[in-house]
């Protein structure tokens, strides 16, 4: 839940490195967010069927999909508004 709140709150003021143009900086920020949430979900998935059948895992997957969708929408808006 924290990740989704972070994306929703910070997307207008994405932290950008000083030596990057605004659009490429925002896209780099999106990639770093995706990378940070992708590793834990892959580790959970690799734990086996016992984990993936639990309701908690399904909730985590839904949240992961929601955050990923928010990041993708933000990326598309940056690219299309350029």
Structure description:
The model has no long low-confidence stretch (mean pLDDT 84). The chain has one domain (2-11, 20-80). The chain is built from four helices and no strands. It has helices spanning 2-10, 22-46, 49-52, 55-80. It is elongated. It is mainly α and 82 residues long. The longest helix is centred in the C-terminal third of the chain and has 26 residues, at 55-80. Helix 1 (2-10) runs parallel beside helix 4 (55-80).
Shape: elongated
- Arithmetic mean pLDDT: 84
Proportion of strand residues: under 5%
Low-confidence stretches: none
Helix percentage? over 70%
How many beta-strand elements?
0
Most strands sheet: none
Which series of helices and strands comes N to C? HHHH
The domain tally reads 1
In brief:
This protein has 82 residues and is mostly helical.
Q: What's the helix and strand layout?
A:
Layout: H1 2-10, H2 22-46, H3 49-52, H4 55-80
Helix pairs in contact: 1-4, 2-4
Question: Which keywords apply here?
Answer:
82 residues; mainly alpha; 78% helix; elongated
